[in-house]
TrEMBL record:
One of its GO terms (cellular component) is plasma membrane. Pfam families: GGDEF (PF00990). Residues 102-235 form the GGDEF domain. This is GGDEF domain-containing protein. CDD domains: GGDEF. NCBIfam families: GGDEF. PROSITE patterns: GGDEF (PS50887). It comes from the Bacteria. InterPro entries: Diguanylate_Cyclase, GGDEF_dom, Nucleotide_cyclase, Rev_trsase/Diguanyl_cyclase.
Amino acid sequence: MTEVETVTPKQVTADEASLHETIAGTLASQGDWRRAYEHLRVALALARAEPSIPEQLRREVDRLRRERAEAREESLRDALTAVYNRRYLDQRLEDLLSDARKPVAVALVDIDLFKNVNDTFGHVVGDQVLRRVAELLREGLPSHAFCARYGGEEFMLVLPAVQPDAAVRIAELARARIAEHPWSALCEGLAVTISVGLAYQSGEMSANRRQVLEADDLLYAAKHAGRNRVAYRDHAGTRVVEYCP
């Protein structure tokens, strides 16, 4: 008589966990961190049915979790300036501007005459200017605010839960930091300024993407007023913070 091998539920669980762990390793080697992480989660769940979780599996799950988080963070950052990219900006604005109960200000920032910087000093210096402007824009922001690269030489400051006067002050301080920065230390004869269009949305109004269009209109108002200025709108109409050297 042929002896029939008995397979216990415990063996099946262990085999399934091993299979998921193997698949996860293959996916990880291909750079598919999301799917690898999901298979390791299944393997870990199966392993919990055992008296103890293999330490190697636990370490592998922790490693992939960190790598997944790092990869996601990198995917939301602008490669040149390290501030958030347009993808992150669009996602966050969609959430923030959809809730009319919470006020939010957006400041659209443009580097004045940036083409002249590239033409006069070269694109290597131009890239250095973009990186330094991004760093200066991030300084002094409230903890819940953020800076993102909107495109080209344009950035956006997103300021949730701030009052209008505070939003204007934040934008003006950013403008002043950049205007007063010792750019000549980077390259002799270099000077950099920004213009800012600040649109504030109170919780009493229907917040939507028209606020970004308003910030764009106000940016042009700052440009037309002579550049190196902050333009915003209040109950009395469009205001421009004049630059006093």
